Amino acid sequence: MKTAVVWFKTDLRLHDNETLMKALAQSDQIVPIYCFDALHFETTEFGFKKTGSFRAQFLLEAIEDLDKNLRELGSGLLVVKGKPEIEIPKVVQQFKAVKVFAKREVSYEEKQVEIKVQAELFKLKCELQTFSTSTLYHAEDLPFSIKNIPDVFTNFRKKTEKDATVRATFDKPNAVISPEIPPLNLPSLADLGLTFEAIDNRAVLQFKGGETEGLKRLQHYFFETQCLSQYKETRNGLIGADYSSKFSAWLALGCISPRYIYRELKKYEQQFGANESTYWLIFELLWRDFFRFMFKKHQNKMFQPWGITEAKAGPKTVSHKLLENWINGRTNVDFVDANMLELKFTGFMSNRGRQNVASYFCHDLKLDWRFGAAYFEQQLIDYDECSNWGNWAYIAGVGNDPRENRYFDIGKQAAVYDKNKAYRKLWLGK
């Protein structure tokens, strides 16, 4: 029998998963695996964990859900822990697999791991086949090559909307034939070097990982409440579950696909009508695409102090006192402090909050923006490498912002978006 390994990464779903569907079409049986890469749980050069407790908990829930959904189709998920370039070849040898199917990476570190895995598989005469499954628009369908993608979002968006189309989604498989997969063996948070932190009950949402929960959230936000029709008006909110879609956490781990969201949104428009709000959700998915393609284009530049600019000034120094005060909501700027406490105790913060605290960090405190980005990397449930580092570079003035010195007047922002101080009272108690 022709056996293939399907290596799940940040595509933890059965619906619209080209990697999985191609593996099923080309094989007699598949072995679905997930590898807990030790690299993802290390402490970075900035002193923060690459994965903090909130996101790790969400990840464990997502993997558990994927295993449950696979078992319902006659398969299951094999979990391994260690370096993928060591663990995946072991699984290939164990099951005599001839191919490994996986999601294609764009970010520098992930790309290096992919190259190492490919080299080890080559020694076993096993092919690694990768598929692009993370974006709304497929890279091959863009009206420009990756190296010629405009560095300004508006130019990218207008031409893409005009000249490219969104591909159809892949259906969820009806059955998955696999050799016997042992019961799920998940590491604990302690095994990953972390301790459990409950999400504070003031959180906008008690996020729970997994495809099942992601699809449920879409159903709620679109069809049950029709909140989508007011998205553009409410998206700058700060309190409550429904001021925005909150899809970001499920998108980040691939528990839901952007093309599936697009497909359901088009159904919604047919049922309830299209308006600026329904378009605006697609607009936000395009931003997500843009940053992913920027990482593909600029690679490691996005992690340098000067970003994609040519002004190669040395990194700014970091005052650990100022950094700690910012993290712990002790800057004495109430709007910044409220947002930072929400992030600390829930692993989430609104888009409006993120822009304000990042602007304050870069332009008021004048600290090295990469420390802020690294803290977000540790803390956010919905951390997405390209969106996080791309947005931080943007606000720091070393990314894709066509305007120089983008500065947020925090007092003015607070007066507009929290005029009755309800948000600040919620988090600061005053």
List the helices and strands and how they pair.
Elements: E1 3-8, H1 18-26, E2 29-36, H2 53-71, E3 78-81, H3 84-95, E4 99-103, H4 108-123, E5 127-131, H5 153-163, H6 211-224, H7 231-234, H8 248-252, H9 258-272, H10 276-298, H11 320-327, H12 334-346, H13 351-364, H14 369-379, H15 385-396, H16 410-417, H17 422-428
Outline the structure in words:
The protein is an alpha/beta fold and 430 residues long. The chain has three domains: 1-133, 3-Layer(aba) Sandwich (Rossmann fold), CATH 3.40.50; 134-168 and 210-299, Serine Threonine Protein Phosphatase 5, Tetratricopeptide repeat (Alpha Horseshoe), CATH 1.25.40; 304-428, DNA Cyclobutane Dipyrimidine Photolyase, subunit A, domain 3, CATH 1.10.579.10. Helix content is 47%, strand content 7%. The protein has helices at 18-26, 53-71, 84-95, 108-123, 153-163, 211-224, 231-234, 248-252, 258-272, 276-298, 320-327, 334-346, 351-364, 369-379, 385-396, 410-417, 422-428, and strands at residues 3-8, 29-36, 78-81, 99-103, 127-131. Strands 3-2-1-4-5 form a five-stranded parallel beta sheet, sandwiched between helices. Strand 4 (99-103), helix 4 (108-123) and strand 5 (127-131) form a beta-alpha-beta unit. It is globular. It comes from Flavobacterium silvisoli. This is Cryptochrome DASH. One of its GO terms (molecular function) is deoxyribodipyrimidine photo-lyase activity. Residues 2-136 form the Photolyase/cryptochrome alpha/beta domain.
